[in-house]
Amino acid sequence: MTQLLSCENLVSGYLNRPVLHGVSIEVPQQGVLALIGPNGHGKTTLLRTLSGFLPLRSGKITFDGQDAGRMAVNKRVEAGLIHVPQGDQLFTEMTVEDNLLMGAYLASDKVEIAQRLADVYQLFPKLKDRRNQLASGLSGGERRMVGIGRGLMADARLIMLDEPSLGLAPLVIEQIYAALDQLRARGKAFLVVEENPSRLMHFADRLCLMDAGHVVWQGSAAEARDSGDILKTYLGGH
To answer: What is the mean pLDDT of residues 161-173?
Structure first.
C-alpha cells in the first residue's frame, strides 16, 4: 500500500538534548498507526517534529510524496498534515465556532468552509449546540472535540492526535473514538499517541512501541494482543 507519511532514521530533540534516535515509521494513505509506550519516551516529540514545531536534526520526512523535513509549518498544514496537540490549546476567549474557523485560515472558498463546518457539526452535534459559547466554558471532552474539529477544518489528510483520551471520562472517550471511527470509515488517516493501548486494539491497523526514543516493536493490533510479555514489560500490563 502507498504510504502517506514516512520518516526514516529521524533524529530530533530539544536544544542539546536529543530525544529521538533514528526513528522510522510509515502511515498508509488510509489507515491508523498508533504510537504507544511510557510517558517521556519520545511519542510527543515525534509528533512535534513531524508537524514542524521541532527542527529535524537528521533523517527524512516524506508526506504525500513530498520532502517535508524542511517544509514550513504552514506548508505542512496546507498539505493536510494536521497536529491536534495534547491539551487542545484552544483560544479560550473565542467562541466554539470561531475556534473551529481558525482551522480553515488557509481556505478562501466560503462555500467550502461552510461545508467543512457543517461536517464538523454533524460529527460532533454538541459543538453545534455550543457554537456561540466561549471555549473557556467547555468541558474537557468538548474541548477535545473542538481540537479535533479544528484539525478537520484544515482539510486534514493525516490527523496526528496526541493522547485524545487523556483525562476524559469513559463515556466521553467512547464518544470521541466513535467519531474517529466515522472519520476512519471516510478514508482519513491517523497517527495516534496513547499511553494505554487498550483503546487502540480495535481502532489501529498497526502499533509502534517506543522506548527511550527508539521504536522497539511494531506489529498489527492482533500481534500486540498476542505479545502480552512485550506490553506487560513496557506498559505495566495495560
So the answer is: 90
